[in-house]
Structure formats: structure tokens, C-alpha cells
Amino acid sequence: MRVADPLRVALVVVAVTACGVIPVPPGPLETDFVPEATEVAVTEVPTSDGFSLQQQLAVRIRVETCDGWGTGSGWILSSNEVVTNRHVAEGATHIEVTTYDGRDYVVNSSVIALTPDLALLTLDDVFTESATIAQVDPKSGAPLTIVGYPLGSALTVEKGRYLNNESDELGASGEDVWLIDAHIEQGSSGSPVYDEDGRVVAIVYAGDSAWDALAWPTSWLQSLLDDPSGWTANTATC
For 60-95, how does the pLDDT look when each residue is reduced to its tens digit (9 = 90+)? Predict the structure, then answer.
């Protein structure tokens, strides 16, 4: 049996004795920060800056809670929305989104899903490109690509393949999630999973004992977008 672990990195976890005593957050990225380009997906033509659209759509997320700071990954759904995991955003008092080229944006509001480990972040209208999502039923061995920010660090592209469906033991929902033969690390939570056509088909939320990826298929996200009653407000406890 595989043991799944959530993949949010706790950058600073400090016990606080009173509400409002918050550890100092990580400093902002340098204004001239440009991440190192990684391999472009085989189905994608690089843009003028050397990054594929799929790489440009992945974002790093930094979350302040009552207890400290953590980091995860996410991706751009629309001009003002980013998708990540519930366990990345839950209980946030402040959320920042950083794009591949170092631009930082503050999240205005967020909601978390009741069943799948998903969260939806809302910002101002700041994004000019957004992902295409697709609901697919992959065959074993289907090639997939994960793009994210493991360990809250550099943009990383990981190639893998779909293995099979497994029961969500981590979230105890009992629902089917995907097992993907692709190495992931802490901080990869919320990373988009792309098919060969460059469409988001799943969202990473955990890894098994071999650090293979576990992911929620986008059919769950589409259901939440169609019926918002599956979301609930994301509130802090302090």
C-alpha cells in the first residue's frame, strides 16, 4: 500500500502566542529575476523568451497562515483565477502568486473544495494567457507532463505517464485519483498535468512512497466550475 504525503512545503513554521504575531515572510524576488529555462514539452514550440505556454501558465504560490508560511504550485485558469490545492491555500491570511518571469500578485479571495483537494484563487485581471482544460480517460502508459515549482524553487518540467486510478486515501474521500509515473517533490502540490496536446487534464496533490504523483482529474474541477456549491469559503482561524 502506498502512503501519500501532501506536497506543500512549510518554509517557516513558528508557534505563535497571540493572533497577529506572524513570522517574517520570504523576501520578494529580484526585479531582474529570470528563472532558468527547462526543457520545452515535445508538443510545444517555445515562445520568444524560450518558455512554452505550458511553462508560462504554471505559477508559484506563497501562503501565509496563522502559523507561518508555506509554498506550493498552481496554474492560470483565466485572466483572474488560479487553481491550486486545498491543502496549499487552506486557512490562508495572505496569498501571493509569482509567475515564471518573477511578477508577484496578491490574491484577493479564495475558496476551497469540499471533496477534491482543490482551491480556486481570485486576483485582479492580470493574466493575458490561460490554460485549456480537458476531461480525458487516459490509457495506461499515456504520456503526461507536470510543470511546477518543487521546493518553492525553480520552474521544473517532469515527464511521466499515466499508470492507473487509485483511491484517495490521503484525503479519505475514497474517490478515484490518478497515479502518474513522474517524480515530484514537496512544493509540487497544485501543479498542472498536461496531455500531449498541452491541455490541463489533472492537478497534482500528493506523492506516494516512491514519490510518484497523485493527481485529481480535471473532471472534478469542471464539476465545481459548473456547480459552485461544491466550494466553501477559505477562512483563517486566528
Answer: 999 999 999 999 999 999 999 999 999 999 999 999
Domains of the chain: 1-23+42-231 (2.40.10.120)
pLDDT digits (tens, 9 = 90+) for 86-135: 999 999 999 999 999 999 999 999 999 999 999 999 999 999 999 999 99
Please identify which residue in the block is written with the cell numbers 497534482: 204
Alpha-carbon distance of 137 to 55, in angstroms, equals: 24
Largest CA distance in the chain: 52
Residue 60 identity: R
> Which H or E run includes 223?
helix 218-226
Q: Can you tell me the distance from the alpha carbon of 65 to that of 69, in angstroms, rounded to the nearest whole number?
A: 6
Q: Are the CB atoms for 184 and 145 separated by under 8 Å? A: no
- Which one, of 72, 227, 60, 197, lies nearest residue 132 by Cα? 197
Q: Which helix (H) or strand (E) holds 106?
A: strand 104-106
Q: Beta 231-233 vs 192-194: how paired, if at all?
A: unpaired
Q: How far is CA 45 from the centre of its chain?
A: 23
